[in-house]
Amino acid sequence: MLQASGRSYVCWRCAAQRLSPGTFSSWPRTAPVTRSLARATQYTNLTYTRELATVHHTKSNYDAPASSSAAGPAPGMPIRSRLRKWEAENPTVAEMMLSDHADEGELTNNFTRPQNVGMVQLDLNDSAPLFTGDELVDLRSDDAMLDAGDLVELQSGASRRPILAICLGRVNGYEHFYTDSGKWFPALGIRTLFVVNNFVSVEELEPVIAALPPADVAIEALSVLHDLGEGPTRQAGAALLRKMLAFSQHAEAVYQENAGTLDASSAFIGDPVKHRYLTLHEIADLLLPESTKQGGKFSTHALYAVHRAMLQDEVFFRPLRHVGHKRSYLFEISPLSEVRVIQQVEKYVREYLHSQRDSKAARLTTDSPIESFVSRAQKVIDESRKHREWSDNGMIGPSSQSVLAKTDWSATDLEILQFIELWASYQKFPQYSPLQAVGSALLRAIDRYQEAQGYLPPAGWTLLQEVGWIPPWEIPARYSVRFPGVEIKRGGSYVRPFMGLLDRHLKRDRLAVIRKPLKNVTAYCIDDITAREIDDAVSLERTTNPEEYWIHVHVADPASSFDADTPVAKHAELIPEAIYLPGHLEPMLPESLIQDRFSLAPDRPCLTFSALVNTNGVVLNEKITPNTLEDVVYMTYEDAASAIGEVREDPFSEGGQWSLGTLRKVEEVNRKMTRPEGLTEDQKDDLAILSKLGKAIQASRLEKGATPFFQPRPTATVDFNDVNLEEHDGFLFASGDPLIHVHYSQLSGTDLVENAMKLANEVAARWCHQRGIPIPYRTQPHAVRNATLVQQYARDVLNPMLLSGARPDEKVWKRMQSLLGVDEVSTTPGPHFTLGSDMYTKATSPLRRFGDLIVHWQIEAALAEEKKLGRELKKIKGGKGEGDDLSFLPFSRERLDRMLPMIRLREKQARALTNVNGADQWILQAMVRAWRFKEASLPETFKLTVTHVTRSRLLGRLDWFDRRAILKRDELNGVALGADVRLGDVFEVRLTDINVHSRQIFVEAVSLVEKVRDETESSQVPLDAEEVKDALVETI
């Protein structure tokens, strides 16, 4: 039967009485929308999910024999009373079909319902930016920053229908869009794979913008207005609709002209055994004729035709959605061997399901590949559960015993397991794909996952753990974040293509003739006790002027030992930033080369970045020189701070820590560490002066609006000492489980090194810019347009909050992010506002960042050329003049422009794995083992601060390591009405579910702790066209 999607109609006058007096009263221009604002509260506590139920009725008591005690309905009883009585006496079991409006992590019903814009659920981005090392960067999506007039394709994972929309601008952190179906909606940042910049002008947007709700309307009301179908009319958006329709028609025409090629693209692109990674432009070059180009380039509608054709193939093409960039996203192209496996397993499942429906056929198909697989899988799973309890939390339970249930898996069985890995681990198929049903059918056939919340990928993930395909503590994020050209090794590590013995490609130091030993210089290598690669050191040089000093930053110099086109360089480029995910450490360069050749030590080469600085923090002179270290002192941050008597205040130090088990003492690395008492007085003076100068330089950056420090993020330290992992015939057998320590990252004991590294990076950027040398500059181009606002907001709002120890809320982050944009990598220098720098690059970590290696290769080639010329290189200014020919450089500007998008993409993948998804899943594993398996204690209740409101749920942050949690509206338990919930409300909540695989925490309300007061602004009139144009210039 069909369930009602909402309650009985309540007129807008009655609903309006529930609003606080005066709410929205100052918006008189559009009466229909005003009435809808009043109606909005009525609907905010509804769950807009229309579902179908398959109901299994028990035998009616009314059909019972006469001796039964059940009495029939009384004569004359009203029909409604009779129905209630019948339902009470005849309970039913309803199996709900998939929802039309699937929430994150759920599958959607898109076969029995037509897809439309109202059914699309867009991904919600976490608005709090991430601080990683020496930059503020949003690792989730570069597509969050759009300009008014940009055309985007919107598509949620739960819908097969793409939607074209035009960005109307960003107001108060929320973007507004107008779709090709004539609908308007707001969003808190969206992900998109296709963007056409400047599709329409701001002037063309004015009629639609003028009909938007006021800028200060709460997001709760905006969401409900969208649900009610309110907003700009089709008449207001007629010009935009015509443009979007014409764009779609032109794209369709290109597709029809090339359908034969596009539909058979696998024959032109596929590799027999290896994955390929191509950008949309590269695919278009392979599939479309040259005649399609206009002026040597493909038109945007031609590219869109190729884009749509690729997405229609759910097996062969897969966009790397979560790591893409609007100018550089990749399609992962499956090898033909993998496609064959998918098609073969799909065939097996279809034949199996057909045989189950036909009882006669079922008796004749005793050799069904699925039945053979099911039989073996059941035995292994049953044996596993004797020692490790199964759970519906995206992981199986702990155990101190190893399960050695050796099974002779057939080749067909391995193909089926490979399919399940693609489905559950790599999550290769879209949520709307029919192939989702293949994975579900396999789980149903195994008949061991009836208690799972649907036969969904998280249950498939636990199947792989139970059969030994992956270890019980495997991190799902390792599979969802793919590095192009790199294979994932089950159980740990990554496999890059074999390129021979890499040390054979090392050569003699190319700068040996100009490299000078650092005699009578003490270089201080200050790093964590666990650091394995030491890539930087600092030293001080006094001058005849007691107010001026040379600060020298000595950086490891691997670039002088191998060229940019060698196998060593290609090996590093595949994973261009070292991965520090616990249990899965992956250095950029081979560990042996780092320890034996490149890590800083006496008599090893370095590249020195130097700046002459006065005591006021003003840089007077700069230079870069190749050197060899002689006297090296290794210290920890804490010991360096102790030596100079520095106490660095950490406003967030009260964050706390929590452990699952007792971690053992951290093993020290094999190098001689110096304690404060081992330093001479002169060495202590050096460190004190370096610290003082660094603070003076940082003070000038803060004046420009730099972020004072980076807010710590929860992370996990993992101990594998009690774990034993064995491999037999490609399957893993584990005993013991890792210990997990959850804590906040802390500021180092001293900012001496941090300030010196920033200075070295600025020196490298300016040195290259003065010579016209292209390198990967780190910039914030979006912030340039908002320079005054960025600096003002940082000084007046964000920085005071950080310095006081207050954690900025979502509103502050949204505002700052809308002004800053995100970091970009470009061959053109520009300001970096978060760091307070006029130009910036990264050059101090060439052992763990490939971008730093590129900077070193460019600089060292220039140093050798200047030695040859006997003078400094001259920059060509404005395309004219007598500048030097730079053809000697390893990387031309054109080559770097082609490389940087891919390098940036890979960097983001590494950081997302280390700092976001991977760390979060270790914390979730610890929570599940404490909450479900009682290995440790957790608080009985938590406080949840609401950060976002959707149709069916509230999103918020727990007061336990800032975990993101979901509170469904039907789990409010009468504590509050959904209509009354506002951003910032605080609930006391209790855990109801945790899922490691989907990275979700669900809670139920216990009480309302704090209610945000509704405040109506003095002015709530909508922006007219001129005001909107001004606002967009300010906030977009």
Structure description:
- By secondary structure, the protein is an alpha+beta fold.
- Helices cover 34% and strands 17% of the residues.
- The chain contains 28 helices and 33 strands.
- The strands form eleven sheets. The chain has a five-stranded antiparallel β-sheet with strand order 8-7-6-5-9.
- A hairpin with a 2-residue loop joins strand 6 and strand 7 (174-179).
- Helix 9 (280-287) packs across helix 10 (300-312) and helix 24 (787-804) runs antiparallel to helix 25 (810-820).
- The longest helix has 39 residues, at 893-931.
- The chain starts with 11 loop residues before the first helix and ends with a helix.
- Mean pLDDT is 82; it is low at 1-70, 121-144, 322-326 and 1016-1036.
Describe this protein with a few key phrases:
34% helix; disordered N terminus; 28 helices; globular; 1036 residues; 5-stranded mixed sheet; 33 strands; alpha+beta; 5-stranded antiparallel sheet; disordered C terminus
Work out the number of β strands: 33
Number of helices: 28
User: Ranges with pLDDT <50 over ≥5 residues?
Assistant: 1-70, 121-144, 322-326, 1016-1036
Strand content: 15-25%
Helix content: 25-40%
The largest sheet, given as strand count, sense and whether it forms a barrel, is: 5 strands, antiparallel
Q: How big is the Rg?
A: 31 Å
Q: What structural category arises from helix and sheet content?
A: alpha+beta
Q: Name the shape in a single word.
A: globular
Strand order of the largest sheet: 8-7-6-5-9
